[in-house]
Amino acid sequence: MYSAISKSAPLLARGPSFSTTAMASISRITVIGGGQMGSGIAQVAATHKHEVTLVDVSQEALDRGKAYMAKSLKRVAKKKHAEDEAAQSQFVAEIMSRVSLSTKPQEAVSRADLVIEAIVENLKVKQDLFAQLSKAAPQQAILASNTSSLPIGKIAELLDSQRKQRFIGLHFFNPVPQMKLVEVVRTKEADQEVVDSAVAWVKAIGKAPAVCKDTPGFIVNRLLLPYMMEAIRLLERDVASAQDIDTAMKLGAGYPMGPFELCDYVGLDTIKFIVDGWHKDGEGLKGNPLFASSTKLDELVKQGRLGVKSGKGFYDY
Ligand code: 3HC
Fold first, then answer.
1. SS3 category, 229
2. Do 208 and 248 sit in the same domain of this protein?
3. Distance 63 CA to ligand 1 centre (A)
4. Which of 185, 213, 241 corresponds to the end of one domain?
């Protein structure tokens, strides 16, 4: 039964209740995947005094991840220590000193309290990675995936039951240093103590947790993707221009970005990948017209107009 919660309760207190028996503190984090999400997660954890190891397949990929972090930290440092360049550099250096880089996943997880995977959205690749990591990570470690659309339970499928109890989703949002939310995704097998520990850790890194079940899109993407697809369909039906739809949602609904700006920001290939997957065989979503393919989206992706990252999407950059 639904029970109402007072609107006056502070944001963090309004979240799902959690016990105080969470596992001893999480201090050593290994992040697998040095892309924008992985490096953002590493940056935020290091900012909050955690010892972080960032893992990727090559030194080149790690250097790119390190550059993302340095750029984002410089932005924060400029605001924190305006006019004082030495203090800015020291701020960045101090945080970066807590981040180690590695191309050896098994070695990198051997002392981890928490492992967060943020690699390519491919189920088989993720399953194989975790099968490999589970041979090396401490038994008490929490294993987590930052997937935005794949079922957490499926990613953990090759693991034994003990590991499954310590496996959850930790879904961050782009840009990670700026977006406050982390969805903590609870599978049927996950221990409550693991969920509680993850919730406590999310708060410890200055974010706000929202706990949810392992269903397609969790909370945010389950609501955001239909919104984006409906916006694209408005455009296909020539109801209004992309600019006017964006203006309408920014000024009429208070969104920081309009749906087309957001589509370009997230990546049109990513959006297509998510909706196609759900339409084909998402649990409870198969054949749902909300996620049916869109000619406009398919065309843009085919032309390589993927959004901000490729310089062109619904808009040119
Ligand atoms: N690192 C550090 N700080 C950053 C940053 C970064 N990468 N990106 C932005 N910021 C900071 C800026 O320094 C600035 O800080 P200030 O307000 O203290 O000066 C603040 O964020 C605002 O940035 P800007 O002034 O450059 O630009 P905007 O005001 O336009 O904000 C935005 C940019 C934060 C991206 C804002 O437009 C926004 O919130 N957009 C919506 C983003 C969103 O919806 N993200 C979720 C996408 S869905 C997702 O990720 C799920 C996935 O699974 C698909």
1. helix
2. no
3. 23
4. 213
